[in-house]
Amino acid sequence: MRLACEGNKISGAKVCRGSPTITHLMFADDCIMFGEASNRGVNVFKDILTEYEACSGQCVNFEKSTVFFSSNVNEQDRNLVVQVLGVRCSNDPEKYLGLPNMVGCKRKWVFQELKDGLKQRINNWSIRHFTRRFRKYYELILVEQKQWQEMNALILWAAKGLILQGMDWRIGDGKNVSIWNDKWIPGNEMLNSQNSDINSNLEKVADLFESNIRRWNEDLVCNTFTARVSEKILCIPLSRNLHEDFGIWTFRNKLIHENEIKTGTQIAEFVSNYLRELDRTKQILPDRSAYTNRWEAPAGMCWRINFDAAFNRQRNESCSGLVIRNGRAEVLCSKTIINKNIPTAFAAEALGCYQAIDLGLQLGLRDVEIEGDARTVIKKLQGKEEDRSKIAAYIKDSKEMALQFRFCVFLFLNREANEVAHEIASEGLKKKENTYLSKRVPTDVEPAVMADRRRTENEQEQRRRSCYRRR
Fold this sequence. Notes:
Blueprint: H1 2-6, E1 24-26, E2 31-33, H2 39-56, E3 66-67, H3 75-85, E4 88-89, E5 95-96, E6 99-100, H4 107-123, H5 132-138, H6 145-158, H7 160-165, E7 167-170, H8 218-224, H9 227-234, E8 246-249, H10 252-257, H11 264-281, E9 303-312, E10 317-325, E11 331-340, H12 345-362, E12 367-372, H13 375-382, H14 392-402, E13 407-412, H15 419-431, E14 435-438, H16 446-470
Parallel strand pairs: 3-4, 9-12, 12-13
Antiparallel strand pairs: 1-2, 5-6, 7-8, 9-10, 10-11, 11-14
Helix pairs in contact: 2-3, 5-11, 8-9, 12-14
């Protein structure tokens, strides 16, 4: 399969753009092969299987084999593949290792069954599943409240070293995190304390900030650390509003996968926290009819600010594309902002949303709808719980700035409906320039704006006629 792929005889499949090509997946006694549903593709497959049989002495059982097709394969090509290989065709998503072979767009539905099963098993856990050693500790959980509090304090104190060992810091004011002794750089990298001799005045992360300004001192960072480490540091987002540093406990994987022995109290705490995580996954975005493939104008006197971000991974740069329109789909302004030291596309989207809020405040708008196609970012902004992800700085600042409006709501829309903001961001990243256009958008984006405006005018005219008829 590998040689056939290198010789361009088979094309394989990709899970996304830029990903490696997958030609086959090997399991214990099964193999899933990916290829093109054509006369050439199926004959190459047959030649490969024939050669495999000759070399290994093992024959493929075609009667137990099944072929699946993507939705864009026509009936003629399907029949050709089935006849040449002599296998059965199935449109039913059969299960393999507990999960369907074909997932498609129903990922949430597929994995919901897995989550429900896991949660049910955890709920059914009983003390009899633990060894005598674990029972001894687990029974302590059932003591009265006062004894529980005392024991919990002792356990936490005894486990202090273990917890700190697995702690990964999110930077707030930088006053509680040691530059040399804590894990605060992305990738769980901890700096060698011997390097502290380079600059003895540097102790806390806050020492790397510019004086009285919430941003990194780039010259200091680049002169103190290697180029690779400096790049990682400068990509860490800083909130413009002061808040304390907080730690993320990254020891959970060891608890699950490395079979480390923990006390009953630690197990109970872990299970409780994990169930809360499962419950949070059930929180979904509000049902909204705007989940369509087209943009809809805001109602009344509200302004709609759409945002999107284009990201260049090689240069760690992004461009935020912003556009503000009213209920008649008329453009108030459009803007592109070039951002440097952006670690991920996820962070680029969060920063774009923050800059959309900032633009609305600068223009003195009172009632706004902030809309984008970054589902996770919108969900975090809609939630009331404190965010502790890597974009927490942007989420905190966005929530606090949004309070300055008289009315502000965060809305999600599909990628196709956010075409105007997407094109503005893409063009801005190509030209690498900051722009602000009053009452218009870049020339290349005008057709998309006009299409939204014509559709809005037609819909409003239809509604007026409908109201007139009812009268």
